[in-house]
Design brief:
The protein is an alpha+beta fold and 131 residues long. The chain has 2 domains: 67 residues, 2-Layer Sandwich (VC0802-like), CATH 3.30.2130.10; 56 residues, 2-Layer Sandwich (VC0802-like), CATH 3.30.2130.10. The chain is 31% helix and 40% strand. The protein has 4 helices and 6 strands. It has a 6-stranded antiparallel beta sheet with strand order 2-3-1-4-6-5. A hairpin with a 3-residue loop joins β2 and β3. The longest helix is centred in the N-terminal third of the chain and has 11 residues.
Length: 131
């Protein structure tokens, strides 16, 4: 399934993550997944939220620099090798995975993938494209 990811560019200093999360809390935006990548000077907070359009507006109004990116979300069965099978199919089809992060519950897991060919990747993981 294709979903919207919000990336927030934040300074790499104490309290900036709390500022972003505080704005979301104040506006009752529920987080579904979260990833932080950093460099010496700034970080990229990547989020999947319950209401992406609302979160985008609220974060922009709060003067955060953000970017909306469509990403692929895959439901995984809880069994060894399941993620490998999807990643292997995408690689064989020549689709590059730029980054990924995952979140899990007791029953299943989900993986968020940023790929260079979103439509084709969706077809492959859904079995519509024989790769």
């Amino acid at each position: 399934m294709i979903i919207q990811q919000i990336s927030v560019f934040v300074e790499n200093k104490p309290g900036t993550l709390a500022e972003v999360l505080g704005v979301l809390k104040e506006n009752e935006i529920n987080l579904r997944a979260l990833s932080v990548a950093d460099t010496a000077d700034f970080g990229i907070l990547r989020m999947i939220v319950q209401e992406p359009e609302k979160a985008e507006r609220i974060l922009r109004d709060a003067d955060f620099t953000i970017k909306i990116t469509p990403v692929l979300a895959i439901d995984l069965e809880d069994r060894p090798g399941n993620l490998y099978e999807y990643v292997q199919k995408l690689g064989t089809a020549g689709i590059n995975i730029e980054y990924m992060y995952a979140f899990a519950s007791i029953k299943d897991a989900k993986v968020v993938l940023k790929v260079d060919d979103l439509v084709r990747a969706k077809g492959i993981v859904n079995g519509d494209d024989p790769a």
